[in-house]
Design a protein that fits this description.
By secondary structure, the protein is of the alpha/beta class. Helix content is 45%, strand content 7%. It has helices at residues 20-44, 60-63, 84-105, 132-145, 149-152, 154-161, 189-205; strands at residues 52-56, 110-114, 172-174, 178-179. The protein has a four-stranded mixed beta sheet with strand order 1-2-3-4, with helices on both faces.
Length: 208
């Protein structure tokens, strides 16, 4: 389960030189998955196996991502020209495309993306230095409208443990266990392929 992430942080780069939200939320998860893939693929080839990859995305992939989709030509900059929320949505859209790419390239492994909904995790603390007023508003909203962690984890748990026939590889699920077809951009095969090929090429550059 690729779950860790950051949200709406100030402009910055990862140590490897990628926009920090994209580097953390997409490339970090893609690298972990790549490193585990030999074991995952070997296990998936065994009789009666049920291997799954669950990528945690967000409805920000629809609400906040750039209208044109991926901005891969810019991710080796801090992308300060767009808002920290757009950069977050960009990284969450990448989670969806990566999931669809996994489903395409590894059909024996069930790969799904899950939006957990608003959860009281402190994820939004990262944009405090830039927008302290909004951070206060988010804290209030969190208390009133967000689910606690135990409730918020149900989507990921369902995707990980439900009957394999109930979980569709390459699909996106919203709380809880509801398949979300999404807009045409979410299902853009060219974007899925572009991200996959770009990510593979970046890993090769790093000797992976």
């Amino acid at each position: 389960m690729n779950n860790g992430g950051i949200m709406a942080t100030p402009p910055a780069l990862t140590p490897d030189g990628y926009e920090i939200q994209f580097g953390t939320n997409h490339l970090g998860h893609a690298l972990l998955t790549r490193l585990l893939m030999p074991v995952l693929a070997k296990t998936a080839a065994e009789p009666n196996s049920d291997v799954r990859i669950v990528n945690v995305t967000s409805n920000a992939q629809e609400l906040l991502a750039p209208k044109q989709g991926l901005l891969l030509d810019d991710v080796k900059t801090d992308m300060a020209g767009i808002s920290q929320f757009t950069r977050y949505g960009h990284s969450k859209l990448a989670n969806v495309y990566f999931t669809k790419g996994l489903a395409k390239h590894y059909p024996n492994i069930k790969s799904v993306a899950v939006h957990p909904g608003g959860v009281k995790t402190g994820l939004g603390d990262g944009f405090g230095p830039m927008l302290p007023g909004l951070k206060t508003v988010m804290k209030i909203m969190s208390k009133v409208a967000f689910a606690d962690v135990a409730e918020g984890a149900k989507g990921q748990l369902w995707a990980s443990t439900a009957k394999t026939t109930d979980v569709k590889s390459g699909a996106v699920y919203y709380p809880v266990a509801k398949e979300h077809v999404g807009r045409p951009l979410t299902n853009d095969e060219k974007m899925v392929n572009w991200l996959w090929e770009w990510t593979e090429e970046e890993f090769k550059k790093h000797g992976l």
